[in-house]
Amino acid sequence: MSRPPTFIPPEGTLAYPLRTARGEFAVLDTRPTGEVRGTALLLPGFTGSKEDFVALLEPLAAAGYRTVSVDGRGQYESDGPDDESAYAQGELAKDVLAQATAVREPGDEPPHLLGHSLGGLVARAAVLLAPPATFASLTLMASGPAHVTPPQQARAKLLTDAVAAHPMEVVWDAMQAMGPPEDADIDGAELRARWLRNNPAQLIATGKQLCAEPDRVDELAALPLPKHVVSGERDDTWPVPLLDDMARRLGARRTVITGAEHSPNTDRPKETALALAAFWESARQGAQ
Fold first, then answer.
1. Where in the sequence is the domain holding 223, given as residue range(s)?
2. Residue 101 burial (CB < 10 Å; 0-12/13-18/19+)?
3. Which segments constitute the AB hydrolase-1 domain (predicted)?
4. 278 is a domain residue
5. CA within 20 to 30 Å of 265's CA: 2, 6, 213, 231, which one?
6. Which of 182, 266, 262 is nearest to 3 (CA)?
7. What is the CATH number of the domain that holds 268?
8. Which parts of 71-203 are beta strand (E)?
9. 30-76 pLDDT, tens per residue?
10. DSSP 43-80
11. CA distances (Å), origin 134, targets 23, 103, 206, 210, 248
12. With 0-12 CB in 10 A as exposed, 13-18 as middle and 19+ as buried, what is 273?
């Protein structure tokens, strides 16, 4: 679970329901005060939300990029049905295509797409489904080539089994009892509120996806789209050497954020924002 430093977005950020052809999705929309050099659509990971990117929004706006971070269907402030089939990866990918259309204003270039962890798997599924020129680039942040490691599979199964059998409040209390001591310093009220608003069917369906995702790197490599693989120095969900190899197979730019682990967006947001803006600028220059 990503733990944002705050749930309060920077001044000037608009929080609203983005209306799309596939329903409404809660977003945080942050715009530069000057020239807009591009727009980026940001997808959070498993058990996360749009607030996982809060610390990135201000530095990315300062670099000239509008960012729209989104709660997917059944995540936090976006509603979703109580049916696991509604959260099949193909359905989530179609949601992303609708979001990309909705955020693009007249005269805009296509948005850049970024997915963190599970969001990266959904992002690549969207890119593989999309018509040409839907996206300006793809960034996979701490998101690997296939399913998560066996220990993470065991954790995901434990969680999804618990969510299927118990109320969300009970599962939250159990997770907190099992958490590391350092988490005691984190204000858990907002994290708890976020957890309780996740649709259990969404968590169960996406947790299963993390454990069964096939390797689609060769499919993705065949697309003529600028690609970027970002991670921390350490990652228990997809080991860093695996991410290095994936970037090589994709012909992608590779960035390792010093001092970060599975969530560079919260661990080292300034350094991560600089790397993202530099990549988006290179993709923008390449398109001109």
1. 14-287
2. middle
3. 41-273
4. yes
5. 213
6. 266
7. 3.40.50.1820
8. 112-116, 137-141
9. 999 989 999 999 999 999 999 999 999 999 999 999 999 999 999 99
10. E--TT--GGGGHHHHHHHHHTTEEEEEEPPTTSTTS--
11. 19, 12, 24, 25, 24
12. buried
